[in-house]
């Protein structure tokens, strides 16, 4: 390894697909590879090491991996003709689920590494360089991974903190329980130590991450709400968020905390998937539409301004027009600030993929179109409703022009505003003057307006 340290900086390009968990993991991979002399670059051109951090959740995402490997093969050949070597690493959930297949289908790939093995990347890459023939590394323990990969804040002000991985819920459409494995929660002491370290580095806002984050049950504590309470007393941590949560794990203490803990931001991503009880049952979601509405109602009772975000799947096997209508009704009743919606995509090995009555693609596409028209309208309306308000905005960066800043509202909206005084990391009052579907714009208000 010492030879590698002495050589000129090598270029590392990581392409990240999928969820926030992958974004987090890519950051950690950059961290562990830095001591080997790998400096991150923004483009794959001329990279010495290319990592694809892949997503297996829908078929489209998986197919992208194989087409991307095809492009990387050309990149590698071009560089080889110039006498340069290139390593190609496939990481993430496709690596975990289809590792053997990738090795077989794509000889150009040097290493396939599953999400629990990233802390071993330096060693694994060194081994591939020695051409040992070992190309597949998956299935290490989650605990070992966390211990070896401490968090670092990318923008210095906001950070993800991964506290839980895996899922035991087994929704019938979902590959996560197979790719990320059983639920694992980090011990409370480890999470607190990491949060303190982030706060010392200047982080003001922490988003706790997990596939089923509110199912957290780490050793040394009393569940997720208890953990949030312990994090909220850390000095320097001004804002807490979490994702992704499951409706069945929205416990009474967690709902109450949304009313009692000002550091807990009034935004919650709570996937519902469908408004039809029949479909929810076939999805094995463990809740019905009434239960979801009840949770949202109780959250709004304790925190009236809370913004609710969700995920939807249309065209689940057996979904009728009546089922879809129930989804549209739920959407109109609840009113979402933000939502992600997808056509159902059969995933190999999941129960829903084997269900009869798969919905015709054109029918699903048309339903998705109708659903998204409604959801996007709600998103625009939610943003437009902030115009005229003064919001506390956490400054996360500078704009291109002097005096321009950008930041985050409590409702996770991107805010662009004029302010010559504010510095990154400040929490400033901003009067919102205009809104689009994806962002707010405004100017700094007088300091006392927020009181
Ligand atoms: N098809 C379509 N969407 C899916 N999701 C998960 N699995 C599938 C699938 N097989 C969606 C769900 C989930 C989000 C992360 O991705 O809405 O909440
Ligand atoms: Fe997948 Fe359901 Fe687990 Fe979410 S709760 S990760 S959708 S199995």
Walk me through the structure.
The longest helix is centred in the last third of the chain and has 24 residues, at 361-384. A six-stranded parallel beta sheet has the order 2-1-3-4-5-6, sandwiched between helices. The model is unreliable at 1-6 (pLDDT under 50). Helix 10 runs parallel beside helix 12 and helix 13 runs parallel beside helix 14. It has helices spanning 2-6, 20-33, 59-81, 92-105, 121-129, 142-148, 176-179, 188-200, 224-232, 252-260, 277-282, 289-302, 321-334, 361-384, and strands spanning 10-16, 38-40, 49-54, 87-91, 111-113, 136-137, 158-162, 164-165, 184-185, 205-209, 239-243, 267-269, 307-314, 338-343, 390-398, 404-408, 414-418, 427-435, 439-444. The protein folds into three domains: 2-141, Methylthiotransferase, N-terminal domain (Rossmann fold, 3-Layer(aba) Sandwich); 144-384, tm_1862 like domain (pyruvate-formate lyase- activating enzyme), CATH 3.80.30.20; 390-444, OB fold (Dihydrolipoamide Acetyltransferase, E2P) (Beta Barrel), CATH 2.40.50. The chain is of the alpha/beta class and 451 residues long. It is 37% helix and 21% strand. 5'-deoxyadenosine is lined by residues 57-58, 173-174, 271, 273, 311, 313, 342, 344-345, 347.
